[in-house]
## 1
Amino acid sequence: MAELSTCRKVYVAIKDNSIIGTASLDKDTIYTVFIDIKQHNKGIGRQLIHYIEQIAIDSGITLLKLPSSITGQKFYENLGYHAVDVVESEVYGRDIIMIKNLIKD
């Protein structure tokens, strides 16, 4: 994974010198998780999220949140996130706000 930005941290997954996935972290919030459609169901998104979660843990963050579409909700639930709110926006449509506690009980 490579780091591209200094404000919001953007992480990329690379295969054969091509970017196949991206995700970003801004403090305690994950944004813009995108995986090349040809790379779906290969674990790239899971690896990218786990990588970001480890960075968050190393930074002292104990709870991560993210906005999800309805199509991405199941993916995040499978990674341990759960919905806590729904936000409507004229610009972005409906976002499902999801959180995950990074501290193991």
## 2
Amino acid sequence: MINKTFSSSKQRNWQNEAMAGGKYLLDSNNHIHGYYKAADILVNSALDSHINRDRDMLFFPIVFNYRHYIELSLKNLIEKSEDCYDALEQTGSNYGSLKSRFKNNLNHHLKPLLNHLTERLLLIGEVGFEESICETILDIHKLDPESITFRYPIKKKGDLTLPEQESYDLKNIQERMKIVKNSFEGATIELQVKTDLALEWLSIQQEQISEFETELPKYDFENNCY
């Protein structure tokens, strides 16, 4: 049961409400793309503002949301690529050996996640991401390897998370992230199609085997004859 902070005591208005939890958590797209959309909305709001301080304040939540979108997307794609590998392996296809399974733990490092995904994509016969996509992901990783930089101004040891004062182009970040998003969505579709085709092939093979077994003459073990 939700508390007073999350629920109005006044008459309910569905236009003010958001649905979350339960079966809605099973749709990973809503969860993942929410961070991307939040970042996009913030960029548009910042660019529409004529106050420089607004853009400065929104920079951190903007990049944090974009970064978290990348992290969740990479983890999701790794899981989908392993599902695809499993389906292809059942068909008898020889795509090499998957050395270890990915464990979706609290690892926030984008570079290892990208490497994990690329390894699996190549293993199932898919090409990796274009250089520009990897460059954007790694650029964000360099600034924020542990998912701390865009959440806190100071690290645990007292160092500044961004020691150098610089200017960051919000519009350019948004445009590059749009390309990343399109690439992620394309990879998701390709993996799903490949998985579905493999499972469909397996289903057809199983049906044919069942039909063949049904048509075989039954052997009478008691009388030692068909």
